From TrEMBL:
Record flagged with keyword Hydrolase: no
Keyword NADP recorded: no
RNA polymerase sigma-70 region domain: residues covered: 11-77, 109-157
Record's protein name: Sigma-70 family RNA polymerase sigma factor
Keyword annotations of the record: DNA-binding, Sigma factor, Transcription, Transcription regulation
Family, as annotated: Belongs to the sigma-70 factor family. ECF subfamily.
Lineage: Bacteria, Bacillati, Actinomycetota, Actinomycetes, Micrococcales
InterPro entries named among the record's database cross-references: RNA_pol_sigma-70-like, RNA_pol_sigma-70_dom, RNA_pol_sigma70_r2, RNA_pol_sigma70_r4, RNA_pol_sigma_r2, RNA_pol_sigma_r3/r4-like, WH-like_DNA-bd_sf
């Protein structure tokens, strides 16, 4: 099937910057991130069913899979060479890649929240402040902190769905 350059360009225009930020958090260089994004867009264009509301999630899953494939390919190098050169084994690398990708996905999802929702969520759920402590720190009533956390969690679930995270 011939490549529809306009369709590929539209996907790149609409999603390229966000996908690059996502990929850049897990690879060593801007060039690697760009290569992964371009490959993902072409794969999605070739293999995806008709464009749907789930296109963005499909793109993120494809980028994530390409990053994992890239790290696995490096880990398949002969063990002696990897151990001598890098001082670690493939199992540890695989765990670190998964942890890194989880962190990158969560950071991207958190950045999609409003500043107020993100602040409340981080204070209560990550920094483990009580609602009262968070309210004092943020300068808002305790009920507002609870409300912001509730809506932040809903928005976070939506953002993670858009990023292709499966429950």
């Amino acid at each position: 099937m011939p490549m529809d350059e306009d369709a590929v360009a539209a996907i790149y225009r609409d999603h390229g910057a966000a996908l690059r930020r996502f990929a850049r958090g897990a690879v060593e260089s801007d060039e690697q991130a760009e290569d992964i994004v371009q490959e993902a867009i072409i794969r999605v264009w070739r293999l995806a069913p008709e464009p749907t509301a789930g296109l963005r999630a499909y793109l993120y899953r494809t980028v994530r899979n390409l990053i994992v494939d890239q790290h696995r390919a490096r880990a398949r190098r002969p063990q002696a060479v990897a151990s001598i050169e890098n001082g670690f084994d493939a199992a540890i690398v695989g765990e670190r890649v998964d942890d890194l990708l989880d962190r990158v996905v969560m950071e991207e999802a958190l950045m999609r929240l409003t500043r107020e929702h993100r602040q409340a969520l981080v204070a209560v759920h990550y920094r483990r402040l009580t609602v009262a402590e968070a309210a004092e720190e943020l300068g808002v009533p305790a009920g507002t902190v609870k409300s912001r956390c509730f809506y932040a969690l809903k928005a976070l679930r939506t953002a993670l769905d858009e990023l292709g995270v499966e429950r």
